[in-house]
Amino acid sequence: MSDTISTAAMLAIGDELLSGRTKDKNIGHLADLLTVAGIDLKEVRIVSDEEDAIVEALNALRARYTYVFTSGGIGPTHDDITADAVSRAFGVPCLHDAAAMKLLADMYAGRGLDFTEARQRMARMPQGASHIPNPVSTAPGFIIGNVHVMAGVPQVFQAMMAHVIATLPAGRRVLSRSIACPFGEGDIGTPLAAIQKAHPDTSIGSYPHFDGLRFSTELIVRARDEAAVNAAAAAIEAMIEAIRAQKDAASGLDLGTGEVA
Amino acid sequence: MSDTISTAAMLAIGDELLSGRTKDKNIGHLADLLTVAGIDLKEVRIVSDEEDAIVEALNALRARYTYVFTSGGIGPTHDDITADAVSRAFGVPCLHDAAAMKLLADMYAGRGLDFTEARQRMARMPQGASHIPNPVSTAPGFIIGNVHVMAGVPQVFQAMMAHVIATLPAGRRVLSRSIACPFGEGDIGTPLAAIQKAHPDTSIGSYPHFDGLRFSTELIVRARDEAAVNAAAAAIEAMIEAIRAQKDAASGLDLGTGEVA
């Protein structure tokens, strides 16, 4: 486990995400995996299948974060241009990789299918890239520099990420504690801000939920240090009890904590 | 209806989206709405609750696209900093808006609740901004320049967007035709690329689906001109029939089109 904090960005590529035809499932999956691995996902971008847009976003992200993960655009059709765009971003040629050609040729031969020109497109990658294995449909993803290029089909993206995540040095995981709060943000905002100020080594998030009638809140304390999480969580629980007592008093009730649902 | 093509970007704000705690639902909703309205969503970014990150992304996006839509960070707690960040991006003070203060004061008075300092935070917006009504929970979103700032809670985001979308001039809608293709991208890649080349006034997308055993494809033709969509779709249907006939011949079968499931 490393004490250095690694950061990450995701670049999801595809017109279908921007037209609404496909609702992305890869961002949330990656976010979950990275959180468990102790790697901080700092930014996500979604761009269309346009080479300039991909190159610009990729160069911005790869310069800024420890890792970049991309999804989409590595299939065999004309609109799959991610390998070309990544090659251009790194200033290297995009070539049919010999090892990928063999993997795919063998797979299609075994299935009695032609290894068409379109299928051969899936062996193209930037010169010098290494493979990300694809146990679902063979055609590999690839890694160049700090950029990990994966398919957009969720089953394939997930299989590729399962491999990739195991190769990355795990960071010191961010611990989190979730506290259900029956009160809306309007009730807790001011005392919660004071608690955040008193616990600067934690990050306290407030996530409102609306059930159609009223707001409640989920409060999440996050920190890499367990004692810090515990101290902030205790302060939040005390705050909730204080608000509850105040509300009971205001409504003329004194049911005692045990009788309040 | 305008013949000018308007573009848009979305900026989703919130640590919870990057930690995986919350799976975003607003991007897909916005994408659907804009597609129907004939406005091209070109880019989406997700950033954390950090003022610098919000300001930088907002300034990049608002300079480049006709409209920017944001979600998240306009609640009453300390981690809701979108109003401050948007104000800084526009170089104007972030103030308690008088009309928003009155709306909220009246609403809380009607519910017998204190109009706390935290709740008053929800009336803060950049000087000169106009309101986006919030029929769900009163606290308004706001518009400044080409930037539309909305809540992250999906019910509220959707209610605000329902108002906003009706105020935007509808563009000439992009028409689309979806064609189910029983073959994988490896079979169709080369002829499909030729069809795209022959129909440059359309955008043909190929979306693979993997059912756990084999890939099929959904092909989508998009264009603002109906005749162009029809011509490309006809070419694609002919391509599918040609591949089917070829496969039937290769497997020694000649079932006739009517008997092929």
Can I get a quick summary?
With 261 residues, the first copy, chain A, is α/β, with parallel strands linked by helices. Chain A has helices at 15-19, 26-37, 51-64, 82-90, 98-110, 117-121, 154-167, 185-198, 226-250; strands at 7-13, 40-47, 67-71, 94-96, 124-126, 130-132, 141-144, 147-150, 175-181, 203-210, 215-223.
Description:
- Two copies of one chain form a homodimer.
- The model of chain A is unreliable at 254-261 (pLDDT under 50).
- In chain A, the strands form three sheets. The first copy, chain A, has a six-stranded mixed sheet, with helices on both faces.
- In chain A, helix 2 runs parallel beside helix 7, helix 3 crosses helix 4 and helix 8 (185-198) runs antiparallel to helix 9 (226-250).
- Chain A folds into two domains: 7-167, MoaB/Mog-like domain (Molybdenum Cofactor Biosythetic Enzyme, Chain A); 175-259, Ribosomal Protein S8, Chain: A, domain 1.
- Helices cover 43% and strands 23% of the residues of chain A.
- The first copy, chain A, has 261 residues and is an alpha/beta fold.
- In chain A, a hairpin with an 8-residue loop joins strand 6 and strand 7.
- Chain A has helices spanning 15-19, 26-37, 51-64, 82-90, 98-110, 117-121, 154-167, 185-198, 226-250, and strands spanning 7-13, 40-47, 67-71, 94-96, 124-126, 130-132, 141-144, 147-150, 175-181, 203-210, 215-223.
- Chain A contains nine helices and eleven strands.
- Chains A, B: InterPro entries: CinA, FLAD1_M, MoaB/Mog-like_dom_sf, MoaB/Mog_dom.
- Chains A, B: It comes from Peteryoungia ipomoeae.
